[in-house]
Amino acid sequence: MADVSNREADSDERAAVAVFSPALLLSIELHLTSEGLDEVHLHAGGQGYWVSKMIAALGGEPIPCAPVGGEAGDALCSIIAADGLDARLTRMNNSNAVIIEDRRNGKRHTLVETPFPALGRHEVDELYSTIVGAALAAGVCVLAGTQLAAMFDHDTFRRLVVDLRRHRVVVVADLSGEPLNHALAGGVDIVKVSHDELVRDGWASSGSRRSVIEGMSRLRDAGASAVVVSRRERSTLASTDDGVFEVRSPNLEVLDGRGGGDSMTAALATAASRGVPFVDGLRLAAAAAALNVSRHGLGTGRRDAIEDVAGRVEVVAIESTDPVSTSTRAELYQRARDLDIPGRSTMNRKELLAALASTTGP
């Protein structure tokens, strides 16, 4: 990881974090008041903005960098100013994406959802310059995704990582798909990914602990210094040079399952900006995620409550060596299938172990 030892570990320090937020959207929600009357809520949204909100909730100073355009962009400028965030916004010709949801019956029903716009070459240049400047000033940068929309050439993520790490900026990437592949090519300090994304993108064969550990190893081989994998109701897993860890947080009833991963990313970045040990950052991240999904609103929470819960989070070192020898026959078969080992369907467990050993070596 980039060196952050020059930052003193001070929980009261207001730590700056630049947040690359290309997919900023306007969220309009329809609710019912306690008297049964209709009411309308307008929010800024998108992964990068939700990460920024949680950084602010944790006492940090987020610097979201995002493109705005059209009437939706005008509304977003006002909302962001009201939220009190030090955003650095660049103009684009097209309008920001808009999502309108009806929640009056207690469930989310999407009425309208417009796409994220593609950015022109000059618009990408402006956004790129903006995030580089903010990241160099902050020393830590979160890379949020584009919701897998084709907003610009994915190689932009690789260039950005290379440029930032050249200047010792700590890069935290919450990406998946091709954007993650390109960012890894530049060498990322911390990758935060969900187990669903890990499986979907082919890094792991399943969401089991053993498979996720193998997937984290592949991500580290591809260019990540540390990897953190959230697994919904199951414990979070992490892999660093110091080993593999299981992160166990207190069980809280889930009210809204969205946003836990973004809260985790925000806490990891905030901890890095304060120079605290990575394991302590894992505790803060697990607590932020657990509390966020137990309440309404994405990227929301109370710093004091999160820090209280973090004190109850356990980070346990687990076996980091190749777990083949303890795998079940079904798991060994899946590994053999991944390696296209012939005759695997008729092999017993002992034979599968031998075949895998001869294929992968010692």
Overview features:
about 350 residues, ten-stranded mixed β-sheet, disordered N terminus
Structure explained in plain terms:
- The chain has twelve helices and 14 strands.
- The protein is globular.
- The strands form two sheets. The protein has a ten-stranded mixed β-sheet with strand order 5-4-1-8-9-10-11-12-13-14, with helices on both faces. It has a four-stranded mixed β-sheet with strand order 3-2-6-7.
- Helix 5 (177-186) links the parallel strand 9 (170-174) and strand 10.
- The longest helix is centred in the middle third of the chain and has 18 residues, at 121-138.
- It is of the alpha/beta class and 362 residues long.
- The chain has helices spanning 47-57, 70-83, 121-138, 155-166, 177-186, 195-200, 209-222, 260-273, 278-292, 303-310, 329-338, 349-360, and strands at 16-20, 25-32, 38-45, 61-68, 88-91, 97-102, 109-113, 140-144, 170-174, 188-194, 224-231, 234-240, 243-248, 314-318.
